[in-house]
Predict the structure.
Amino acid sequence: MIGAVDVGGTKIVVGVADQDGRLLAQDRFATLPERGPNVVIGEVIAMLNALARGQGEALTAVGVGCVGPLDLPNGAIMNPPNFPGWSYVPLRQPLEKALGVPVRLDNDANAAALAEYRLGAGRGAEIMVYTTISTGIGGGIVVDGRLLHGVGGGAGEFGHQTIRADGPRCGCGNRGCLEVLASGTAIVAAAKRAIADGRGAGILEQAGPAGLHAGHVAHAAAAGDAAAVEIWGQAVEALAIGLGNVVTTLAPDRLVLGGGVAQTGDLLLLPLREALARHVRMVPVDRVDIRIAEHVAEAGIYGAIAVGLQA
């Protein structure tokens, strides 16, 4: 039985799965990293043991998907922004010592990519590119069943390619990154600016009292709201340029889109396919199978399962 741990800044999800990747049980707790790594890791170990006992089976391996940056060769987490005081914390070693099974660690985007390749929309692909379009934009590349990590584990950072050299400043320090132009965060920020300027009534109508997200902009654009059409169109165009660069470089047979923005389905897929056809000339883009990820809502835990299956 595989143990799985999805380590996020606000919550940690722990699960157990069978050897076919089927999730059998899961539980979660608030990360509260200020408690310190020993306490948090101890809670992970206790929860894994409790879930395994509940299934009446022993763990054979554990996969961990984690926010970065990570030291992958040594299985450690290195000073992530939402983990104050966690300057360099080994994760693999204490888990292996306590549980007595192999533990494998990868960043959350790579883990989600592997989950889609093994357990989702990437099944059967030779070269699969996965990108998550959510709060930020990240991704992973799987070639013949193997994740590409690259120098420092940096492969798949699609969100930090430059789309507009004179564009707005990104959180990474660069200007005009794909993430600052087309992430869910960027789309919502643009919508709020439009609303503050007295535009985007259709966006407000879609959002209602629940709070604004990128899907509201997509649906308002489909309904003809002028501000939403402009904002959604600019985001799709930026995505087409960024993903077009990736397609031209790697010529994948499968492109899988995850994250909250991808949950808009055809509102994203249809214009994105059209825009990719304009931007990609050296690769037969019509032969690139573009799909929405199967594990959008639970990408983290299924990513950890997929990592564990390789341990």
